[in-house]
Task: inverse folding
């Protein structure tokens, strides 16, 4: 099935296992792009939600969908939420939308109507919407009418408001039919995807079995080849380790002590003393008194290592 048959938002829904979160994020993005003033804090809030919803890479796409006024995607998001709203209340989303829409002050004319759309989606009456708005913002919800935006909105008298609702409901019914068709495509796509996954799982299982057989054969061959040499090689390695340990033990301790003092093997006694004073002052536990017990414990261990290294290097020969 060709991917071009699906919109960007439909593909996003098909990929996710949490369609409710995806739909909620699109509707909040719709509120965000219709604000009078979009604050940087609003953007960071959406980025945080997108990250928690596993859509961090999809936020720009969702904002573009909302900015373009993709009514099909918005209605599809609403239908997804409505379908799942029987199990999970939608009023928390309404509270999020109110907080986002009013973070910079007064509601924009568009967001007046968007909030009422979300209230209808949440099965919240006008009184409930007003109460939630009061709880979130501390102020009363005003009428969506705004004379300063006459070119943007028609007159918000009682007749226009009453006429707007049937038109919106007719639009919603058309979109619902589109959703039904889209869901049929999703089911077909899911069937194809599950069949493809099943075939892939079977092929992978067969490949793993073949790899396991080959691996076992290689292991058996390697064990047979190694067995005849193992004892001699181990004896030889042990002899080499014994010789190296006996020959390098003193020099190794000196090099280790010099490394602790950040010196090389050519360091003289005066240089050792200067390095000790410098490092002891830098890592003395008293310097980290105000940084917590863990930091002081780390500094104490470091200081002891520096002191031990210095005493070992300056011991009488």
Result:
């Amino acid at each position: 099935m060709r991917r071009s048959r699906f919109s960007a938002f439909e593909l996003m829904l098909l990929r996710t296992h949490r369609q409710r979160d995806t739909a909620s994020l699109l509707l909040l993005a719709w509120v965000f792009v219709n604000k009078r003033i979009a604050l940087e804090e609003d953007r960071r809030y959406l980025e945080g939600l997108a990250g928690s919803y596993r859509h961090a890479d999809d936020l720009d796409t969702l904002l573009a969908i909302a900015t373009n006024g993709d009514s099909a995607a918005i209605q599809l998001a609403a239908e997804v939420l409505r379908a799942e709203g029987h199990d999970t209340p939608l009023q928390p989303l309404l509270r999020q939308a109110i907080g986002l829409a009013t973070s910079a002050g007064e509601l924009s004319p568009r967001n007046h109507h968007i909030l009422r759309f979300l209230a209808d989606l949440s099965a919240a009456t006008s009184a409930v919407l007003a109460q939630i708005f009061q709880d979130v913002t501390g102020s009363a919800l005003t009428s969506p009418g705004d004379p300063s935006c006459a070119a943007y909105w028609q007159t918000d008298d009682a007749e226009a408001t009453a006429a707007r609702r049937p038109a919106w409901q007719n639009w919603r019914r058309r979109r619902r039919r589109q959703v039904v068709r889209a869901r049929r495509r999703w089911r077909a796509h899911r069937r194809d995807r599950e069949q493809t996954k099943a075939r892939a799982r079977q092929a992978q299982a067969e490949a793993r079995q073949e790899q396991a057989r080959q691996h076992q054969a290689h292991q058996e061959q390697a064990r047979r080849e190694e067995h005849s040499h193992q004892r001699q090689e181990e004896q030889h390695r042990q002899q080499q380790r014994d010789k190296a340990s006996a020959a390098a033990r003193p020099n190794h301790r000196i090099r280790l002590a010099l490394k602790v003092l950040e010196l090389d093997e050519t360091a003289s006694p005066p240089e050792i003393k200067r390095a000790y004073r410098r490092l002891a002052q830098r890592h003395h536990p008293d310097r980290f008194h105000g940084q917590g017990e863990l930091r002081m414990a780390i500094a104490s261990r470091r200081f002891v290592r520096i002191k031990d290294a210095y005493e070992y290097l300056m011991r009488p020969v």
Residues 41 and 315 are 63 Å apart (CA to CA). The first helix runs from residue 8 to 15. Residues 3-156 form one domain. The radius of gyration is 35 Å.
